Structures are given as C-alpha cells and as structure tokens.
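User: Predict the full complex structure for these chains.
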Amino acid sequence: MIRCKWLLAVIAVLVLLVTTACSNSAPESGKKEKNELKVAISGAPPTLDLHKTTTLIAQKVGWHIFDTLVTLDENYQVVPMLAEKFEISPDGKTITLPLRKDIAFHNGKAMTAEDVLASINRWRKYSSLGKANLGQAEITAPDKDTIVIKLPAPSNAVLFSLAYPSQGASIMPKEVIDEAGDGNVKQFVGTGPFQFVEWKQDQYIHLKKFDGFKPRPEPASGLGGKREALVTDLYFIPVGDNATRVAGVQTGEYDIADEIPFDNYQMLKSSAGLKTDIAQDTTYLNLVFNKKNPLFANVKARQAVAAALDMDSIMQAVTGNPEFYTLDAGLVFPQDAWYVDNGKEKYNQKNTELARKLLAESGYQGEPVVFLVTRDFDYMYKSSLVVKEQLEQIGVNVKLEVYDWATLNGKRSNQNGWDMFVTTSSGFREPTAILFLDSRLKWAGWYNNPQMDNLLDQIRGSVNFADAKQIFGQAQALYWEEVPTVKLGNMNGLVVYRNYVQGYKYFMESTFWNVSVQ
Amino acid sequence: MPRYICKRILSLIPVLAVVALIDFIIIHLTPGDPAVIMLGSDASEVDLAKLREQLGLTLPIYVQFSYWLLGAVQGDLGRSIFMDMPVTQAIWQHLGPTVSLALLAEIIAILFALPLGVMAATRRGSWIDQLLMVIGLLGISIPSFWLGLNFILLFAVKLNWLPAAGYQPLSSGLLNHIKYLLLPALSLGIMQAALIARMTRASMLEVLSENYIRTAQAKGLKRQVIIYKHALRNAFIPILTVIGLTFATLIGGAVVTEMVFNIPGIGKLVVNSVLRRDYVVIQGTILMIATAYVFINLLIDILYAYIDPRVRFDDQAR
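Assistant: Here is the predicted structure of the two-chain assembly.
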C-alpha cells in the first residue's frame, strides 16, 4: 500500500510536468498574440531619475518616459522636441525656446514653462554637462510658454547639452521636483510616449502607452521627429546572464534582447523566427592611464604604450569578427558632424622599436605596472589580456589585478594603487562632453593640461560650427600627442529580436517608440 | 517542549549577533563604491562625494554599525541604497519565489530520493544498487547551473515545452507558477535527491541489519511492511536532517540557479546586492538566512520527537 502511495505521487508529478509542458504557449515565429513588447536588458537601472544618474541602463528605460526640450536627429544635430523651435540671438548670448502648446504630463497636468524651468534648474545642478555649460546661465520663464537662456558668453555647447540623452535634461512636473528635494524623484512622470506603471525589483519595469501623447509632425529622425507608442505595454526585464537572454529570445520569452555576446551571432543569424541587428559604433574601448602616478605622469611612457599597440589584434580578440569593430582615431564617431581625424598617424602604430625607445626615455626601470581588470565585461577583460601581452613584448612588467566592476570602480577613483585600466567610452557626440579631456571634470586618470582646457573652452565659446570643429581638430591632435588615454577601437553592438517586431532601429541606444509587433 | 523551544530561540541571539558583526565587517572591508553604481562611472567626483555623505558612508564604520544594529533590534533593517525601499520589504518581495522554488525542488528531491535510496539498500551489492549510487554520485557532482543550462537548451530551446527563464507569481495561476519553476526546481532537486538518496541508503542499511528487523522477518511480516513501516521510520532521523539542511540551503537562495533562470529570489537579491555594493541589503539578507537556518534546524529537532518516540525534550521525559 505504501509503495502504491509513492508510485501515485511520482505519477502525479509526471502528470503535472506533462500538463504544464503542454500548456506552454511559446509564440510561433511570425506572430505575437498580445500588443506588448518584452525587452531583456542586461541589468536593472539604479533609478529612473535621469537628472541624477549617468548610467546607460537608466537612459535606456527613462527616455521612453521623459522628453527633453531639444534632442538629436540622425545627423546628431540639435532639433526641437518639447520646444516648438529655438532661436539664438545675433550675439549668441540669448537662446529663446518657445514651448509646444497642449503638452500634457502623464499625470494629466498641462506642461508650462514653470515645470520646464524647475526641471532645467535641477538638471544643471546635478549634470556634469549642465554644470559646465549652463552653470553661469540665467534661465527665465517670461511667460507660461517660453524659456529664455541668457549666457555670459556665446556658446554652441548649450543646446547640445540640453539635447544630450545621457543624464538628460528631462522635463518633469514642478511638484514632483519640489517633492524630491535633494533626493531622487519619487514619481516618474514625464511627457514621453510611454508612461510608468510599475517597477518590480529584479523582475520588470512596466510602461504603457500614454494616450495623451502628442507626437511632433516631422518624420522620425534619430531621436527627433515623430515618436509614437505602437505597443500598449512595454516591459524591460533585467536578465543578467547572457546565455539566459539569448535562450529567452530564442524561445519567445522576450521579444528583444540586447548586449548579446558576439560569438552567438552566426547561430542567431541563421535561427528561424529571429532577426539580428548590428548596432554601429555603440562605444569605443579606451585604455586609461593614471597620470597621478609617476610612471604615466611622464608623457613618454604613455606615448610608448600608444606606439606599441596593435589595435587590430586587440579588437579581433574582443569581438572575434571584423563585422563588430572598426579601427578609427576619432574621439567622436565617424557619422557625427564633429568627426575629425587629426592625429590619426599616432593611432595603431604597432611600432615596437619606437615604443622601446620612448619607454627607455621615460626612465622606466621595469617596476610593476598595475593594470586593473574586470571579468564582468568580456570586452574589457579580453582587450586587457591582449594589451598586457603586447606591452610585455616591449618590456613592460604588467601586473593584472582582476576585480568585479564595483571594486574596480572604487579602486580607480583612488589616485594610488593603479596605473591603467580599460573602459568603454560611449556616446561622446560633442567634444566638450568627452570626460577624459577636461581637467575640471576630475575624471579617473586626472589628465590636466591647461592647453586642452583652453581649446575646449574655445569650442564652447565659438558660435561658428566650422571654427569650433577646426579647434576640435587641434584638441584631438593634442590628445594623440599627449595620449591621456589610448583609444583602442570602435565597437558595434549585437541586438536580436523576434521577426514579428517591426520598425526597430538603434540610434545611440535602443528606442522602442515607433516599434510595433505583428 | 515549550521550554526547549524557548531556550533554542534565546540561543539564537548570540548566533545572530556574531553573524551580524562578521557580516558587517566583511562587507565593509570589501572595496567598491555604491555611489558609483548609483550615479554611474561617468559621474563627477564632487557628486559622488555628496552621495556618499548622504548615504552615511563617510561615517566611521563603528558608527554605521551602531546605527544599523540599533535599527535591526527594532526590526528595521535599513533602507536599500539601490532599490530605495526598506530592506524588509525587499526581502519579503524576493522570499516568495525562493520559497516556491525550494518547496518544489525539495518535493522533487524527496519523490526521487526515498524510493531510490530504499531500493538501493534492499538490493545491496546488486547492479541496481551500483547503478543508483553511480547516478547519485553524478547528481552530487554535476553543478546545478550546468544542469540548468542544459535543461534550458533541451526543454525550452529545442523542445519548446517550458519557458527558458523568468517567474510568474502564484496569483497568475498554479500551473503557470509551476511551469516557470519546473526547470530550475528539477536542476536543483536532482542534486538534492542524490544527497538524500545516498543518506537513505546508508541509514536503511544500518537499520536493516538490526535484530528487530530479523525478528519481524521471523514473525513472517510482509517485506513491504518491514521495509516501509519498521525500517524506514527508524532510519528516517538522519534522512530528515539531510532534508532539513538541503531545504535550509535552498531557502538561503539557490544563488547560481536563480541567476541562470532569472528568478527574482533571495539568491538573486544577494548576488545583485553584492555587485551593487548595497550594504544594508546584504547585511539584512544574510541575517535573514542565518535566522532561517536556525529555525529550520529547530523544526527538525521538533520533528525528531514526533518521528522517534525515544527523543523527548520536555522536563517530564527527563
């Protein structure tokens, strides 16, 4: 009798397994039952308060909720978004931004200049770009539909700063900002095509279509023009494990997955029901020197490293496929209007003889060079290993110290105990946003050259774009002369999605307005 | 019995105090900066310093510990730096998936382990016994995450029977709830089953050699009655201990399995909090896990008394 009970129990479990198995509703390729989009992202954002964080993952979710006064079109030119247009006075010191009428926040309240003023003032208090470019500006709201920015000197960086999406100048209701005080905002209320519904920690962030959204009449271009929520519900699901993100999109658990490891490309490309997208120039790999330590405070030592490196080997090791990288000396990406190639002769030199000579001139005596590395990001780890090997060939005694990302971040903010690390530098679409050039931003590595700061100030203060671009050319040439960091190469990204997802485009990051499911 | 339970609960205090202290010191000795995680690696040093101050991270470590301990004894484990919610609420939110997963994994483990363990013991030395023990050894040796990834590949990607990852709460329906937990529970359950089966075999072998079993056989009792009623019940105490320990381990969060299957449980909470350097959540969760361990052990001790009449804890029995 007892054995029968066990048998029954085992049978019951088996029946349950079969029943549940059969009830799985994996989508067939080519159709999606619900008008929703499930996006698997690599981690959860720390907050959706975009004024307060520079993390890319926060931007990835947040820019569906919040709009900005101006934004960037597909040529990285500033175009209006919540502003009807922008007018710059002939002396370049006054920028007038009339606001679009009848724009509503997700809480139903109409947007006024008072809300915009509160948002911009809060943003410039926290954002590096805001502090640098609008810190001295007088910003007023002469009437309920206009914002006026008065500058002490002309600057072409102001509008770009307001348009730049990372730590973007998001517009929120004044009362939400007042309620937040010095802390993070408690409610995520914007004017974007999607409104915030729910955040289940470690499970999902749920947004839904905002019925009161009024798209711009211009055709979509980059982040500008017409934005429309074409799905009713949008879920961002944090899935840290790469293999799980891949498997999830293969089975239809997720509709889109990003940050897919490159070695899955061939397999996913040939999978039925899936589409792959190679996002061009998502970021570039950058080897950062600690200029506060004696070795790399010496420019000869930095030049020696730049002379030694073979970028093709490094990028090939990182991506395993030439489709996923490009070798380029530019500090902004080639498709950007600011792109210049000054200093390119100093990039990818592969000259070990010169490197040895420069290293000897720097006075290097074989002391250990501490290279901070993390395994959390495959591309950082692989590139560091190849850089180590290449530097050892010219006689550098490289000592790898492997940490998790949080520890590495903690260590690199300390001026002692390290000599170099590899990181990614993404989204620099304008010269004054390049963190590692401007000494006043005190970014890790602490490059400090008054000549560079002066060139950056000249770019900011220049009203003529051609003049500014020419000055940027000088700044980039100086960068390759001084090598505060060594740019290794541009890296592409891999996104995979189900074939019923229509209209997906990558521009500076994944955007899900104008994306539908069929 | 009540006195025994009270005594055990009181003994919890020094255990938890030591756990809290060690836990706090280790976490704060680990390098890393929650401010960088919150503001991003492109944040300026000025903003980072300001946030560190706001979070109280610039206070001396003993002051931070005193504040945290004072709150903890009042049931307030602090507020998560990253999730911006009370730690107790974060733990509560993540506990449900872990408990469901642990229960299902344990049920699967017991359903497989007990019959197989008994079968191996009653057929000692036979090819069945040897085969079962080899399977058991494999079950213990194979990492559950590797098993999990292969299950995903087979049952989700190739056969499309079950979801590859994710979690649906019980409120979405029992079958839907189980559907998402079945693969992770199987990959965890198989390892636990191997442990329990080996213990069942060893314990049964010992009991089956006892004189009273021979007496029962001499009396002509049925083989099944001897095995399941007389032998298994007496062999059950060490088996129960293993079951309890494996369950306590699972409640502490099946860390890697939860990450692989993207289950928002305690294991995932701990890993994410470590990566984010969310100190208060790590401290609170470890304290919770330690408490769960002690209580589950207490429960096992109480069950001993129920299963084995020779074990008594109350004063009268003494």
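The domain at 280-493 of chain A is CATH 3.10.105.10 (Dipeptide-binding Protein; domain 3).
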